[in-house]
Amino acid sequence: MFDYVCHGTLTAPDALTAHAAELPSFHDIELIAPLFWADHCLECSPPACYASCEMFEANEIGRCKRVDYMELGTIPGFDFPAAHLRFRKWAKLRCPYTSSIVHTAEGFLADNRRHEKQLALTRKLDSASLSAPLSLRYPASRLLHHRYIKKYWPLPDQRSAARELCLVFWAVKPVQGSRLILDSYDFDDMLLTRNVYAVREGLNVWRVPTEKLRRQGEPVFALELFPSDDEALEVYMLFSDLVSFKAGSAFANPAQPKKQPAKKVKCVAWDLDNTLWDGILGEDGLDGVTLREGAADVIRQLDERGILNTVCSKNDEALARAALEKFGLWEYFLYPRINWKPKSGNLAEIAKRLNINIDTFAFVDDSAFERAEVESALGCVRIYADSEVEKLLSLPEFDVPVTEDSKKRRSFYMAEAQRQDAFTESDGGNYRSFILSCAFEIDIARCTSDEDIKRCHELLMRTNQLNASTNRIPYDEFRAIAEDPEKLVLRVRCRDKYGEYGTVGCLILEKRADTLLCTDFVISCRVAKKKVESAVILRLMERFGTGMDIVYRPSERNHVLKDEFLSIGADYDEANARMRFTKDTIRDADWATVTDHIEG
The whole model's pTM is what? Predict the structure, then answer.
């Protein structure tokens, strides 16, 4: 649906009308959460830019016209309002995800006429306010619009019941290679996810599961939709809402299996009252709670194994910290969240700060309600009752390889917290300047020692987001490759002025006549977004005097590495599963001091 648009009759091409039977109808839909899309600009900051931008053209309510709405209405044989539109340069469609209210299809049909009348009223209000300052025009109509939404779309806060975003559109002669980009943003307007769709001429049906709009359980605030390369893409937008299709309908998806936890746990989140200690801190006071027998030993042994610990508790933060310091445990917990917010949201926030996937978390709590709340929102988190604490260390998901790096893992994350604080306080917040100020040192050498082999194998087996090939090589096989003098297996270590990162990378290389082929490229999330990849790749190209090809096989999670490769100048050869680099095209590679100890 489209914001501030009145619907009439839309004349559609005969070819589109002929496909009406293939489009979703009210009879296919169980629940719908309408998204109210409006046009915006990718580049500008309205209204300050209106006077200076040579592309500014006012629409009928005085805002910048970035999308040409040529016709709006209903297509014969199709149940939903549609829009015939063309994207101008820098145009995007944006909608507030949080204003979506779930409704039954029948209720949507009954209320659609009322919605049209409300849109007509807001349109008149905006037109009548053209003489007012721009800052006073939009809020009045928006307030009316939101009051209408709250009154007539009755089932709030059930967006999770709508399982997917369904975009159905008819593209009119798109250019070759045309793509639509769908971005989701959080409440701080930070990018959460990016989905890209290859547009073909004629009918396009793009179905995006709602979990692909989120990242590690974070709530979505807004969605943006725009063509790549500023293309003047012309489409008939036929359907663009969140929806759940009825079982048995032509559009119904087969039942999807519940997302499973990762095989190994990377972080344990602890409740406090009647879990880590006996008693309720807010009622019994600091002297009235006693540490549970064996709990501290479990935390320390998890730390020795390189499994992180954090706190997720509804409590007074200052008092809880005092109790943890009293028991000598405060230093073991990274990014604790001690507040009165839902614990699922706190866990998602901790995962974001640690930059690890939420499915690697375990959650320990005495409350059946809290365990159920987390399971409902984050079904891939392992959940344990307080009575299970003593057996955690014997469970297979906590049986992880122990290396010197893993023993230091908490200190690595503590140093990273210092970096983040320093960047926040840095003058102007220029990230590149801050990275340069960190004085990074990168060391590359053959992976030959027992410790290096164990750590590199751990990276290969446990890293998902920054793993180019996602090969999982058995330990004995990997050790044989590393010890073979004809093979080239490298480990990458890193440090900066805040401390050691440890071994953060593993590469398996083949030297060829015209290029250096990297069959496996893995980087730890500890150095994500720090351009370690570019510095390492440039050094190896200089060392061997050739370009470098990296095998890249897309997975559910490693799009993060793909985006990073592309940002530093890779040429993606999708047909051959290669990211191709040359010394002339690589970017952001000159910021660190890099040494290597590679023979031959």
Answer: 0.48
